[in-house]
Design goal:
12% strand; 422 residues; six-stranded parallel β-sheet; Beta Polymerase, domain 2
Length: 422
Amino acid sequence: MSLVLLGINHNTAPVDVRERLAIPTEQLAEATRSLIHQPGIREGLILSTCNRVELVADMDLDVAAAAQPDLRGFLQEYFSLQPAAIEPHLYEFREREAVRHLFRVASSLDSMVVGEPQILGQVKESYTVAREVGAVSTNLERLLQSAFTVAKRIRNETEIGSSSVSIASVAVDLAHKIFGSLKGKQVLLIGAGKMSELAARHLIAQGASQILVANRTPERAQKLAAEFHGLAVPFADLHSHAPKADIILTSTGAREFIFTREQAQQILHRRKGRPVFFIDIAVPRDIDPEANKVDGAFVYDIDDLQQVAAANMAERGKEAAAAEQIISNEVDRFHQRLQSLDAVPAILALQQHSEQLRLAELDRARNKLAALTPEQQAAVEQLTRSLMNKFLHAPLTGLRQSAHLGDVEAMKAIRKLFSREE
């Protein structure tokens, strides 16, 4: 296998460059076909997400120079880009380092948010498309199956994905700790910004039921409420609706507190002591910090959520170190398996060639051996076979050991020394 990986990602290219190379899901099959039709590419795969576009190819480097694979040229031609537009942002890995990179990508160690689970599904989706169009068969099949195994092992053996690192997901985790279960809980959104919308999506995904939306612009409130199959309420009436909500999420541009300590006490009184969770992601803050002193009121502002997210990210960093060690070990194992597989054809060829030589020599001596009894001829047969096996023992053992150790140069030397041409 001659493996090459070429790509850009969030670390090497800004979004305006990445979006020019992005491939929609419905066009991925056609793009993959175009890739493997390039000269010198035996197998290929394209991974395209919002944060990366990568080409993975098993290349035939024995073709004539004029037909050498050109992944850079493919990118430029397929996306109609000048070299200067993408060349500064490209990275390229070959062989062992390409394997390591793909393992890290599938395990989400190369993601913008380390430990996020989506990337493995995206790699699997690219793999499925590539298989369907005949772009993945033997070598990339082994590589990708190994990548999936490594990603699963890291999920099982580390805690890299166990802690939340986004504001929205941290808020949901805290809500779980307060209520135990979010099933049937009601949410009041005050403000219709993107972050509050994202947090609401997380809450609903975890079982929250009715969504109430209050916004100074009624049309925006109605639009967001319709998206969640919820109910828009007049902004002026939000305090009368607040006691209905178990979770109140605020994200407005108000210059004064929307909820004071006294108003929080009134909400808890009307809820008859049932707790309420205030998620304040507004700057300036919408909720008086003193409200946190009210029994049954749990108030978290944007700084609180960011501190939890940062602590969780640091914890993921510790787990990432353990994951990197797993990947290093798995890269070694993968290459040992590759070398072992690479040694098999050489071993078979050497055995077959030696057997042909033995049979040819016996045939040349057949007239001289004609006078021997069947028992004596059988003894000669056994003798020649035994001599040949003993002669082959050292080179075959050397091939197997070199393959196990990944000693490519030693394998080449043994092959050259005992090749049929020689």
